Amino acid sequence: MTETDTLTILRYPDPRLHTVARPVKAVDERIRGLIQRMLATMYEANGIGLAATQVDVHERLIVVDVSEERNQPMVLINPEIEWASPETRKGEEGCLSVPGIYDGVERSVAVRVRAQDGDGNARTIEAEGLLAVCIQHEMDHLMGKVFVEYLSPLKRNRIKTKLLKAEREHTR
Ligand code: QAP
Ligand code: CO
Q: The pTM is what?
């Protein structure tokens, strides 16, 4: 068995995080390889979700695993929200691209999503709770949106400054 290479995760406020992703044309060897590397990257970083945008690949692909045991990977290719509950809830979110920052975001409590799985087969996923929140968060990335954009400009600017400073201190 050979280890899969991990990918570099872009960090806010990297402007590439605001790129809008294009649809995946075909679930071929290149996409299968990307899925494996994205899963390895997410698990290594102890994340519950990762969008291709975050690894600077601007195609509509996300990986998610909200299981306690970290053994239930989900792959969503070309995901589309078919239905989102009008009922919303504010919950604490973080992001692998915004390390060390957590804040409340209002989201639909349940969603129904149409997507292709890692084999290219069409699937409909009904999600609620953490999975529903995670899918909405990751699908935002594919639209170039980072969760801090839901926060006030004041909070967002503080986060920007903090992360830029951390990056400078890490670089020198
Ligand atoms: C999105 O985020 C999410 O700051 C996925 O130091 C998060 O996996 C959806 C992480 C919460 C719903 C609720 C963040 C790991 C992971 C950090 C993540 C960190 C280490 C974030
Ligand atoms: Co994120």
A: 0.98
